[in-house]
């Protein structure tokens, strides 16, 4: 495929202004909605093939969210597209002032392998809604899903408008060399740096949805049964291959052993006494990631789990103890079903520990103390998170989702996806009914009036 020519053809279509109207965008969103409905069974099968995802997990974490996001966008698109009227200062008397949402043009969407359907479709919805063209690059690590998305998009859209380019990192490199108008990337921090460097050569704006070591904190007044169940769900969904999964847990020293006991019960309730025998337990994406994760098991003490099956690429839900921040498992985002546990006596200890790592994508705090809840929210920097839960902030379309610092740039979901793919164009519509002379040089009273006017701003 001639990628340079493809980008040129998409730029030509965008410049013809076909994507600008509400009618066009709405029609494309409804076409996407129909093809998703038609291929739902195939989406389930592809996720099962590539990651061994159960039908329940596929629906709950990939399909249902996209269906809801798409319906919400279709319902609200007309309102989102309206120019936003803003206040007019006294110095601009007679004018009307607006913010228009302008599409960027031809966008590049690069998706990851851990949620290979959802994390392609969610930004695509935003790109379409905002009036852009799009080239999609799914992950080569989930080839069945990648092929299916390519089939769905080809069947639905003109390739000069939206198309899929499949391939490995060489294809990604060629794509990143093109003069896109916007790039949306979801993936690892190291690759995010490559994307940002490539984008800088064309001064292309980017959204980077990355990751990091997201902490979970369980205080001594937490309701442990609920905390254990919600942490187990958040950590071991998709076998821990989730950018916002709890990466490690700090538990108050007074409740550590009781918490581990509750956590073991929660894991067995969710996955059975031997998760490796559970046919619906998600596998690790490939042998390289499996080997990386199993190497972590050599450090510390395994308190729960630790069983592995290399033939099936599965690792049981594991909890590790007796670790420190110098061990390999604490150097990078784990991205697998291994949960290190640490203890603390006061929250300032946790604050200091979290700051040892780059700013996390998410943070979760379990406590019944509202003052401590607010202290955590205000005194630790992170992308987003939950109080007394895990991951649920991601699923709320009324909350922007994104990181901070090395965990990401920008945010999306719902209206925020529309805004991410839109340039906010400022417009002043000035009256011609009169013309204030003091704004021009030569006015004897001009400076005095300007000083008086500008003080009123």
TrEMBL record:
Keywords: NAD, Oxidoreductase
One BP annotation, GO: aldehyde metabolic process
Catalytic residues (positions): 209, 243
Domain of life: Bacteria
Record has Oxidoreductase as a keyword: yes
Pfam families in the cross-refs: Aldedh
Gene3D superfamilies in the cross-refs: Aldehyde Dehydrogenase, Chain A, domain 1, Aldehyde Dehydrogenase, Chain A, domain 2
Aldehyde dehydrogenase domain mapped to chain residues: 2-427
GO molecular function, one term: aldehyde dehydrogenase (NAD+) activity
One GO cellular component term: cytoplasm
Similarity comment: Belongs to the aldehyde dehydrogenase family.
Annotated protein name in UniProt: Aldehyde dehydrogenase
